[in-house]
Amino acid sequence: MIRTVLGDVDQLGVTNSHDHLFLASPVLPGQELTDVEPAFTELQRFRASGGETVVQWTPMGMHRRLDALPDLSRRTGVAIVAATGLHQAQHYSPEWLAETLPRLDELFVNDVTEHRAGLIKVAGGFHGLDTHAVHTMTAAANAHHATGVPITVHLELGTAALDVLDLLCDKLNVPPHRVVLGHLNRFPDPWVHRQAAAAGAFLAFDGPSRANHATDWLTPSTLADLADAGFAAQLLVGGDTTTAAARGMPGMSYLLTHLRPRLDPDLATQIFVANPTRAFSF
């Protein structure tokens, strides 16, 4: 089963595996995603392009709007998977962190059981894991063991994927197929990608049409190469819209109108339909 904001389902259909309908952070001043109607319009466009599910990775304390997501899902017909979890420390005030960090295990579990969160989102650092990351990932592992929901990971500029798997899987006993590694397209190292895939994790390539992240021209061939190497069942794609400027142009529908046609049709069906259902199940 997959936990959506309207209840548990057994299929997701065509899925945007990493995006944000709502997001606000002090490190992104003036770029907040806070209004309901623009989110509604974005979901409508995604639906009109054939999309059926959006997985929102916005964690606690970043204006994830759990209150608004069920109505948006009902109004648009798009299923929404919501997140609990915690981002890097820079996204929060020291006072908020001091109050929240000691209670993470409890808060994560409560979001899953009481507020229909379907994943736990945490974050690594640039080429490594600081004490904040270790603390939040430990809490995420504990909450995973209590609930079964998957853990998704923001990899800073796509780095430290193997460090994350060493901590979550080798030290904290999270099954690797319950871990989704995000932003791998931002650090397009084939060796790292294959090592992470061989370990059993899901690999998410998200944020197409960000020219500075070498996404559009590398992602199709990267996905094809990983599929040829035997890892087709572990690949995911997402839009990762994080600022108001990215709404509508290119928007969530870009995944379906521009990226999907560049993939082999059978591989595209696996990446957009079959894999998300397994990646986000519990």
UniProtKB/TrEMBL annotation:
Chain positions found as N6-carboxylysine:
121
User: PROSITE patterns recorded for this chain?
Assistant: PHOSPHOTRIESTERASE_2
Any signal peptide, and if so, which residues?
Answer: none
Sorted alphabetically, the keyword list is:
Hydrolase, Metal-binding
Q: Name a Pfam family for this protein.
A: PTE
Record SUPFAM superfamilies: Metallo-dependent hydrolases
Coiled-coil segments on the chain, per record: none
Which superkingdom does the taxonomy of this entry point to? Bacteria
Write out the similarity annotation.
Belongs to the metallo-dependent hydrolases superfamily. Phosphotriesterase family.
- The name under which this protein is listed is Phosphotriesterase
Biological source species: Kutzneria chonburiensis
What high-level taxonomic lineage is stated for the organism? Bacteria, Bacillati, Actinomycetota, Actinomycetes, Pseudonocardiales
